[in-house]
Amino acid sequence: LENRYEEAIRHYELALGCDADFTDAFVGRARARLRLNQPERAVLDFEEALRREPEDPDLLLEAGSVFHFAGGKTRGVEALRRALATAAADWAPRPAAEKLLAEWTR
């Protein structure tokens, strides 16, 4: 299975070689890196994705979780707060995100 994630990373890198602003490729590569226990590298990919789409609440939620669990608790909370602030009132993950934020800020 590890080889599949490494292969996925290579494909995302090829995609980024064609389009350096392809946010989904940064996110996909970050997810694969997480599966390979490379949280620091995943954080870098989420940072790049957020540079391109800084107000995407779904991206902020996922990136915030990675930041938080990779040791950047403050950054995780900030990203989650930004996700809640930018999301529509009927954003489906809102209740879970609010609960998570309450847990993280206790």
pLDDT < 50 runs, ≥5 residues: none
| Biggest sheet descriptor | none
Q: Could you tell me the radius of gyration in angstroms?
A: 14 Å
Number of strands: 0
Shape, per Cα inertia axes = globular
Average pLDDT, rounded to a whole number, is 96
Q: Element order, helices and strands?
A: HHHHHH
Which structural class do the helices and strands define?
Answer: mainly alpha
Strand content: under 5%
Number of helices: 6
Distance between the termini: 37 Å
Percent helix: over 70%
Structure description:
The chain has 106 residues and is an all-alpha fold. 77% of the residues lie in helices and 0% in strands. Helix 2 (23-35) packs antiparallel against helix 3 (39-52) and helix 3 (39-52) packs antiparallel against helix 4 (57-69). The longest helix has 17 residues, at 2-18.
Q: What are the defining features of this structure?
A:
mainly alpha, about 110 residues, about 0% strand
Indicate the topology.
Blueprint: H1 2-18, H2 23-35, H3 39-52, H4 57-69, H5 73-86, H6 94-104
Please summarize what this structure is.
The chain is mostly helical. The chain has six helices and no strands. Helix 1 packs antiparallel against helix 2.
